[in-house]
UniProtKB/TrEMBL annotation:
Name of the protein in its database record: Beta sliding clamp
Subunit structure: Forms a ring-shaped head-to-tail homodimer around DNA.
GO BP: DNA strand elongation involved in DNA replication
DNA polymerase III beta sliding clamp C-terminal domain ranges (all copies): 252-371
Record's GO cellular component terms: cytoplasm; DNA polymerase III complex
Organism, scientific name: Pseudoroseicyclus tamaricis
Gene Ontology molecular-function annotations: 3'-5' exonuclease activity; DNA binding; DNA-directed DNA polymerase activity
Keyword Membrane (UniProt): no
Subcellular location: Cytoplasm
Length: 372
């Protein structure tokens, strides 16, 4: 194998591929990236056996072939090469080496046999559809903060993507929850997604997917089966196993009868929560919300370090209410609001609170209160 490629294109492709490689590996070949050159393109493939990413880039291929080299090391080398450099990759199969040349720089990396590199088994996808990158980015970005990190409840360690029946018709929906907060985001159902099985997309895959969704004008090809999900752009294909478990019936925890309505400027609210939470060294410190006629007082009382209080002008016309929340959870939910105002709907100080962006019900959030 011998090819020449522009350093920027090489770095983008290698960085995308190596990010799925696990740093601590007991299987040496999984630390490598599979490089395959043919025609006018070079393909980089990396996997951790659960997630596989394939990235391709244009290249001048002098001699077709394939090999595998340490992914992280290759990424570091390419990253440190000068901008605009033309990089030549050539392997000597007999010597078990890949030579990397750029200007006066010359590197040689050990290779492992390409035959040993695992390829994720292909699946028969029951649903194939295309969705705008902007739509998918909104669905996953607004829900991923609520993914659980608790390994014992593994079925919560991802975003549940499924087709939901609503009063407005069928919608594409993403839901995530960790038992303390919940995010439920809806979008128009793309053509071809009607028969899509509900799948739990793992946390790591959600993180990798974000890199495919930067271009608002791009359409992403999505394929879903009971066991796998695949997202593809013209250059990158991300394939992942889905979490083998049943996502709980989240509709039961979404309150339907919360009538006490607070409307507040989302940015001002987030800044105020952040300021009053500063006095507490504990990340989980409760922030108390004291609500009265068109007035909100945020307060934190940390016996070890002090106390803080801030008042905000808000739209609130119900009876007085005092309720506490984890400061971190409040900040994360408030930061999801794209519109100017956030609307909170309360029932009592012990019941879950609902939050949405103005009157838009395509994105709703639920957060459990804390005792204060």
């Amino acid at each position: 194998m011998k090819l020449s490629i522009e350093r920027g294109a090489l770095l983008k492709a290698v960085a995308q591929a190596q990010s799925v490689v696990e740093r601590r590996n007991t299987i040496p070949i999984l630390a490598n990236v599979h490089i395959e050159a043919e025609g006018e393109r070079v393909r980089f493939r990396a996997t951790d056996l659960d997630v596989e990413v394939v990235d391709q880039a244009p290249a001048q291929v002098e001699r077709a072939g394939a090999t595998t080299v340490p992914a992280v090391l290759l990424n570091e080398i390419v990253r440190k090469l000068p901008d605009g450099a033309l990089v030549t990759l050539s392997d000597q199969a007999q010597a078990g080496r890949l030579t990397i040349e750029a200007g006066r720089s010359n590197f040689q990396l050990s290779t492992l046999p390409k035959e040993d590199f695992p390829v994720m088994a292909s699946a028969d996808y029951s649903a194939n559809f295309a969705a705008p990158a902007k739509t998918l980015r909104r669905l996953f970005d607004k829900s991923k903060f609520a993914i659980s990190t608790e390994e014992t409840r593994y079925y919560l360690n991802g975003v549940y993507m499924h087709v939901a029946e609503t009063a407005e018709g069928r919608r594409l929906r993403c839901v995530a929850t960790d038992g303390h907060r919940l995010a439920r985001i809806d979008a128009d159902l793309p053509a071809g997604a009607e028969e899509m099985p509900g799948v739990i997309v793992p946390r790591k895959t959600v993180g990798e997917l974000r890199k495919l969704l930067e271009d608002d004008d791009m359409e992403i090809a999505v394929s879903v089966s009971e066991t796998k999900v695949r997202f593809a752009t013209p250059d990158i294909t991300l394939t992942s196993k889905v979490i083998d478990g049943t996502f709980p019936d989240y509709s039961r925890v979404i309150p339907a009868n919360n009538t006490r309505r607070l409307e507040v400027d989302a940015a001002e609210f987030a800044k105020a929560v952040d300021r009053v939470a500063t006095v507490s060294s504990e990340r989980s410190r409760a922030v108390k919300l004291s609500l009265d006629e068109d007035r909100l007082i945020l307060s934190v009382n940390a016996p070890d370090s002090g106390a803080a209080e801030e008042e905000l002008a808000v739209a609130y016309g119900d009876e007085k209410l005092e309720i506490g929340f984890n400061a971190k959870y409040l900040l994360e939910i408030a930061s999801q609001v794209d519109r100017e105002n956030a609307v909170f709907l309360f029932n009592s100080s012990g019941d879950p609170t609902l939050m949405r962006e103005g009157n838009d019900e395509s994105a709703i959030y639920v957060v459990m209160p804390m005792r204060v």
